[in-house]
Design goal:
This protein is α+β, with helices and mostly antiparallel strands and 134 residues long. The chain has six helices and four strands. A four-stranded antiparallel sheet has the order 1-2-3-4. Strand 3 (116-121) and strand 4 form a beta hairpin. It starts with a helix and ends with a strand.
């Protein structure tokens, strides 16, 4: 069965348009720590691997980063981010914040060595806090 030239041209036009859009996107948001960076967007959707520490930095500027965390179990977060730390092991600054916050006594873990603190209700994350400048 022979394909029509019109179908082939349409397919090539579609593919080249997609590549052009991706190229423009990459040129517009080249910084890996930008939440609009294509690699971060794909990582957030689970379609691309990026350095976790870079992704955690990009999360600071991402207004919708909570969807990555809220509702996930500790095991799911460990799989995605590598390791979680209790406040007592997260560093003095973060531990002091935890001790003096309304979250003291709650089940809390920090994502790696980042300023992101996750509060759990049972086995699921129900709050994400960026600890800075307290």
């Amino acid at each position: 069965m022979q394909k029509s030239p019109r179908l082939i041209v349409s397919g090539l036009l579609l593919i080249s348009t997609l590549f052009a859009i991706m190229g423009i996107w990459l040129l517009t948001y080249p910084d890996n720590k930008d939440p609009k960076n294509l690699k971060y967007v794909l990582w957030k959707a689970g379609l691309y691997k990026v350095d976790v520490d870079v992704a955690l930095s990009a999360m600071v500027g991402d207004r919708n980063c909570k969807i990555i965390i809220i509702g996930k179990s500790k095991k799911q977060l460990e799989y995605r981010f590598g390791y979680l730390l209790p406040p007592s092991q997260a560093g003095k600054y973060y531990f002091e914040y935890y001790k003096n916050s309304v979250f003291c006594g709650k089940d809390a873990l920090f994502i790696r060595d980042s300023p992101w603190m996750v509060i759990f209700d049972g086995e699921r994350a129900n709050e994400l806090i960026l600890v800075k400048g307290y």
